[in-house]
Input
Amino acid sequence: MHRARERSALIRTARVDVERGGTDGRVGRELTQVLGQRKLFQKLTPGIMHAFIFWGFLILLPTIVEAMLAIVDPAWSLPVLGDSAAFVFAVDLFASLVIVGLGIAVWIRKVQRPDRFRGSHLGEADRILLTILGIVATLLLWNASRVALGTYPHPAAAPVSRALSGLFAGGDGTEIASRILVWSHVLIVLGFLAYLPGSKHLHILTAAPNVWLAKPGGSGRLVPLRLDLEGPEEDLRFGAATAADLSRKQTLDLFSCTECGRCQEVCPAWATGKPLSPKLLIMDLRDHVNAEAERVLSARAGGVVELQPLVPSAVDDEVVWDCVTCGACVRECPVDIEHVDTIVDLRRHLVMAESRFPAEAGGLLRGIEGPNENPWSQPAAARLEWTEGLDIPVLQPGDPAPEYLFWVGCAGAFDERARAATRSIARLLAATGTDFAILGPRERCTGDPARRMGHEYLFQQLAERNVEVLGEAGVTKIVASCAHCFNTLANEYPDFGGRYEVLHHTELLARLIKEGRLTPRPTAAGATATLHDPCYLGRHNGVFDAPRAIVSAATKANLEMPRNKERSFCCGAGGARMWMEELEGTPRINDTRFAEAAATGADVVATACPYCTVMLDDAAKSAGSDMRVADVATLLAESALPPLTVEP
Amino acid sequence: MATVWIHAGLTEAGPEPVTFELLSAARSLGGTVEVVAFGPGASATGEDFGAHGASRVFACDEDAGPRAAARTLERLIHEHGPDLVLFATSYGGRDVAARLQARTGSTLMSNATAVTTFDRARTEILGGTRIVDVQFAGPTPRLVLMKPRSAEAQATADGPAAEVVRVDTEPSADLREPRLLSRQAQTSRGPSLDDARVVVAGGRGLGSAEGFAMLEALAGTIEGAAVGASRAAVDAGWRPYASQIGQTGRTVKPDVYLAVGISGALQHVVGMKGSRRVIAVNKDADAPIMRLADLGVVGDLAEVVPALTEEIRRRTGS
Amino acid sequence: MNVAVFVKWVPEPEGTPRLGPDHRLVRAGVEGALDPGDEYSVEAALQLVETHGGEVTVISMGPDEALPAVQRALAMGAHRAMLITDERLGGADALVTARVLAAAASREPADLIIAAVESTDGYTGTVPVTVAEFLDLPAVTFVTHLSFEDDELRATRQTPLGTEEVACALPALVTLTAGANEPRYPSLKGIMAAKSKPLERPSAAELGLDDRALVATQSVVTVEEAPVRDGGEIVPAGEDAVRRIADLLAEAKVI
Output
């Protein structure tokens, strides 16, 4: 009871993040994810296992009430259901399914032994499975004993109970057995309820609310932190420093984790030997919060208490920085735990309050903070260098807004390898007579890397500045060539007053192909490609078909990688990690992904984001491979446009 | 007749070579050239300095720290009234000159590339893109720090030995100076990447850790050169992270950046774009670094680098 | 121990500063920052007082535009700052600058003064040691590592032949090389705290300097564009290429 009170108090007293608000889609999510177990079915066998047990328990809930009633007075029965043959059949069926599910669970855990359970409390899981077995077995046997005694309604509808009733001889012995069974059943259930708050099985109570509270608008958007620097300093929160800073959703996340490890399985950092596992992160935070619970509640009530810093007491610095914010963990989690949000909140405190971050990222922050406001510290005028030899309209102050503002992004403007894509996109748009223009020197970093690093203040300054410039220019539609810019402009700028129709370049180009305004020529010796889905385009924003349409049009075939679409494996540059070194001695994330691409046997790795292009190209060179890495726009330009006679 | 003085620092091996460059620069002004020499062996420099055009050497054989040296120089200036004093931009010369300007009230000009008259000198600013002529006002003597290699050291055909005048330093008992505890000579190390005038950097093209030995040999022939690496070479384990130049490494601004086997990706370029001159050696004529280089050599670095090392050795006699 | 640090605001540390018609660097309305070289000095000072107690004061001479440089040092953790602004200091040369900084530093004598070996826009490299002479202090220059042990300063310094370990009693002045440490990035908290730290804005007169002390004894006569190097050339490898490289090195005066 104490645990239950404590945990509910932790949730109740946690701050509510109003910025997560909005109700769109929440009811739908509850129905599909909770009732429909949608995310659980992302892995088929475990999905079936859990669905059987979950649906089983929903159906069997009334039987628990029935059992408790029966202890008091065997003559009492449930209204309506007590007399329903359909219900009797359902009980029999679902109780059996639960047992089947348990069997599958045992097989998964004891025979298959998947790696995702590494670090999970397997003993606790076994005990829970055993308890469930106890509950369902005692139920079935109790029903069976009642069939033998002739007191079970509609026994014809209960084949399993009938079969089991053969175990009972009838008469006094069975009476006693029946009493023992119903008492056992109720006691096990009550015991389970008492055990619940202290165990990971608490998820049965927290999962549904957790799914409800998941932020709307997709995983690409981070919730803004309101920083009122003029206000009183005590009210200022720079992120999550201690357990008391965690929000209601973040706390609920911790109590919803079942240690299933589906997140761990897909994390690129974990897959390449880094200490970050989303599952272990949540578990460590959970354990820390539980250990500090009393002090946290006291602090929140106004007491002067010293709380341990989450980093490094619960989580190591290295773990916090290993994250590439790809969102694979969030996508897999059946109970909608939002690991990335919590990691960024930890980063926010580390960066803004303590300035504690990998030294290499200092250059990134200085670049964005400095006079040129971009990660590469390049002068603004250099944003036009890629236009050499092409006639690209540059939007001047006072000019009427074009139909599409082509947001080039810093990588696309400054990085040699990324410029190929930028030039291709511009040429394709020009060739189709699309009305577009670039901001050129007036463009600034969207702030995405600063935000993912946790420097929310810097991000907001850039966002406000960019929204002002775009607003003055009267821009309504934007096409972005970088998946990160695309995500930030589409999903995060609205929080700062910037509302535009934002397309990724693949979306616009695919549309132009569909409309027949671009006609890729089938090339004689066509190359095969394998498309790498960028995390910020695919998983975070659901754009999978557009790049595929382009690859299909421009190349001979798209040989899909095993981990594609929502399951795409990150290139390693997200989360501002483009500017950080990976843990020494571990395989590189980009090398790992490139190996997967090379294994398809394709000639080209097709990308749709400049970060991916650079990372995979680095990996290709590292592997000494001949495989080409090119943006889909470049492939399309080669296929649909006459070649430029002079490439400057 | 106007008089120029050269401040000469002495090492165990004799006068610093840069002194002879200063003497040549001084001679081109016309007028009397004299030397003020500090350090053991100062009084034995008459012939050497004479051969380079000095007529007199004020020799102070004691090991004077910069504070005492500055005061001694001030006293000599009062006694003899030179019009101009030239210093070498060496560790020792700079310290003495800086202290002297406080005492004489005449501003010390730094980084001069030439002295055109007794009142005028030249320097470069803004990354060498502008040449500036500076006029001196204020009390004589004018004080000038010359950049190394601003002039060629040239001996005169028949310079007679200079007259040596022994002088004492100012008393320095109560002039506190730092105390030397120990010295470590670094024969092959050279300057750190941050301070190096020349950076020789290697990338993936070197193929192995052993490949860098070639670059170390090359750097060894150039005074003030350090060896750096691109991220690819560091990732491959051929060089330590401390030598990585680029986005997640160091930023360097040498006079010359020699990029060997480096493709020139942006992550690398941001770490060296401030270099005054860039030379690239790469087998790929389309490598991005070629666009950045003042001189790009397309070919096999395994041939170019050793040949270059030889050529430099030949020219510098090292 | 109380440490004073000399810092400077430089215009456009990443780009190329511009010259005005008076041949002086344009500072008004230009983006600038704390001289990157000075960050190492501030960091060294902070590390010393964090270990040995005391406070860090940053001293700078500059126009109003220079305020951000001083604020950044405060945001890093310096305790107080002094920015000397005076229109008569517009054309100050190295000697005048040294007089001003010496006057400022002698107001509240510190145990140790730290400055960068040279500024990234002026490169004169003489101001700190001149200040040391005005204040009668010993100077340890080109320091790569600094500590305080047994009541005296211990420093590793760069020399033409390698390195030296030296000891020096306080008070003293130190010039620090770039790369001597890893300067901390000011946290947002630090930036906010900087706003309420003591900041003095004396004029030259308030420091006891009269007009004569502020007269520069050097002036710029002409500024010409240096001959522009030809656009980059690409040549095939061979004897000729090697010669060309060596020529370029000679032209750059590195061999």
